[in-house]
Design brief:
This protein has about 425 residues and is mainly α. The chain is about 80% helix and about 0% strand. It is built from 23 helices and no strands.
Amino acid sequence: MSDVTIGFIGAVAMLAAIFLGAPIMVALTTVGFLGLTVLTGFAPALTVLGTLYFETVNSFHFSVIPMFLLMGFFAMQAGIGNDLFDACTKWLGRLPGGLAVATTGAAAAFGAASGSSVGSAMLFTKLALPEMASRGYNKGFASACIAIAGTLAVLIPPSALMVVYGILTNSSIGELLIAGIIPGIVFATLIGLTILVVSMIKPAYAPRFRERFTLREMLWSLRLIAPLFTVIVVMIGGLYGGYFTPTEGGGIGALVTFLMAVVRNRGIDVKALSKTLLDTVTLTAMIFAIIIGGLLFARFLALSGVSDEIKDILSNSGLSVWTVLFLVTIIYLIFGMLMDAPSLLAISLPITHPVMMGLGFDPLWFGVYVIVLAEIGAITPPVGMNCFVVKGAAGNLVTLEEIFRGLWPFIGTCALMLLLLVLFPQMALYLPQSMR
């Protein structure tokens, strides 16, 4: 049996194990280790496994993940989401669908402090959904706005998912984080415009916000979020200028949001701090386990020659690179419906990344494109992680079916975002290229 055949059998076995209910990290690690054992022997495979574990948990660059997660948890404790929603409501509330637009703006800004789409969706469901429902908004539409706005958190830096992509593909994490800035702003703008259009076509979906605020009240609402924007500007500016690493930027962000939480809560809540640290460690361990499994599986596929074989098949098939990109897009959308984003990246990138690089695509551009695809998967049925999070946080206020129905206007928004990335790749590449 050839090495390539062994590689294909391993890939099929890994997918079969996942669909039969095995945890992603277990399927990746088990198949990767067994595959390496068949190809190289038990002792070399065990050496590779031990080396990957040590390099991952001992790497300074990988410590950016817990720093970003810690920053996000402290941001929630500091009540930053409340401040952002209050400020955006005062500035944007009188637009058609103003509360939903304000939620999108607040979620985009909060994404720059948390990097968690799930956390953002949960927070703004509790903050914004009751407010929108009390003002007559269609509950499904309002919930869908929150679900898709939550996806902005992993596109706008800091983004733990960008870090996962960087680790799995050996790409520059700093450049990846910067690459997400312009696409994140564009995507947020497209979501806001979609809300405006739907609200004008169907005013009953989003009744106008009638309350007026003075300029003084609007300016005063910015006072509590000014420290956050300061640290975001410093962090992004430092990364862009090369003054510090992503890990150091995450550490600065975590420290500032911690101090904001202390000031907001008038002291340190030891119980809340312990829970935050425990949640950070637990989530970090889960992400690291997926990364290690993904790296081990990637080593197995590379050694077996599967990635090169697929690249050769596609190159000799006569298909254009854009047809291949379309096929890859469909694959990501399908699998994105069935699993969470880190797992999707760990499973897919060992195959898709070498193939797309061999076809001449830029790794930074492909990273942004894949992140957008993964987050589209986070709002599409049957899994739609963000939709389940919104439903869980909303309780009986809205049904899951209503949320999925409310998402239909945003399908075109997501397709347009992908099209813009294809037509204007410099949207993702301009800032990273200007750093060099």
